[in-house]
Amino acid sequence: MIVPIRCFSCGKQLAGLYEQFKERVEKGEKPEKALDELGVKRYCCRRMLFAQADLIDEIMQYKR
């Protein structure tokens, strides 16, 4: 939904890296290479960015 600000396991800041990661992957770069170049080395942090699903735009359509 919303990109986590920090990794749930180790606490590394990740929110600033998500947009760069998303742009690189959309341009056709391999996700593994993009994460390596962004300095995301730990498995826990890679999981946070790699498994992120952008659902906020879909959820914003529904109101109470």
From TrEMBL:
<feature type="binding site">
    <location>
        <position position="7"/>
    </location>
    <ligand>
        <name>Zn(2+)</name>
    </ligand>
</feature>
<feature type="binding site">
    <location>
        <position position="45"/>
    </location>
    <ligand>
        <name>Zn(2+)</name>
    </ligand>
</feature>
<keyword id="KW-0808">Transferase</keyword>
<dbReference type="GO" id="GO:0000428">
    <property type="term" value="C:DNA-directed RNA polymerase complex"/>
</dbReference>
<keyword id="KW-0548">Nucleotidyltransferase</keyword>
<dbReference type="GO" id="GO:0006351">
    <property type="term" value="P:DNA-templated transcription"/>
</dbReference>
<feature type="binding site">
    <location>
        <position position="44"/>
    </location>
    <ligand>
        <name>Zn(2+)</name>
    </ligand>
</feature>
<dbReference type="InterPro" id="IPR000268">
    <property type="entry name" value="RPABC5/Rpb10"/>
</dbReference>
<comment type="similarity">
    <text>Belongs to the archaeal Rpo10/eukaryotic RPB10 RNA polymerase subunit family.</text>
</comment>
<comment type="function">
    <text>DNA-dependent RNA polymerase (RNAP) catalyzes the transcription of DNA into RNA using the four ribonucleoside triphosphates as substrates.</text>
</comment>
<dbReference type="GO" id="GO:0003899">
    <property type="term" value="F:DNA-directed RNA polymerase activity"/>
</dbReference>
<keyword id="KW-0804">Transcription</keyword>
<feature type="binding site">
    <location>
        <position position="10"/>
    </location>
    <ligand>
        <name>Zn(2+)</name>
    </ligand>
</feature>
<dbReference type="InterPro" id="IPR020789">
    <property type="entry name" value="RNA_pol_suN_Zn-BS"/>
</dbReference>
<comment type="subunit">
    <text>Part of the RNA polymerase complex.</text>
</comment>
<dbReference type="GO" id="GO:0005737">
    <property type="term" value="C:cytoplasm"/>
</dbReference>
<dbReference type="GO" id="GO:0008270">
    <property type="term" value="F:zinc ion binding"/>
</dbReference>
<dbReference type="GO" id="GO:0003677">
    <property type="term" value="F:DNA binding"/>
</dbReference>
<keyword id="KW-0479">Metal-binding</keyword>
<keyword id="KW-0240">DNA-directed RNA polymerase</keyword>
<dbReference type="InterPro" id="IPR023580">
    <property type="entry name" value="RNA_pol_su_RPB10"/>
</dbReference>
<dbReference type="Pfam" id="PF01194">
    <property type="entry name" value="RNA_pol_N"/>
</dbReference>
<keyword id="KW-0963">Cytoplasm</keyword>
<keyword id="KW-0862">Zinc</keyword>
<protein>
    <recommendedName>
        <fullName>DNA-directed RNA polymerase subunit Rpo10</fullName>
        <ecNumber>2.7.7.6</ecNumber>
    </recommendedName>
</protein>
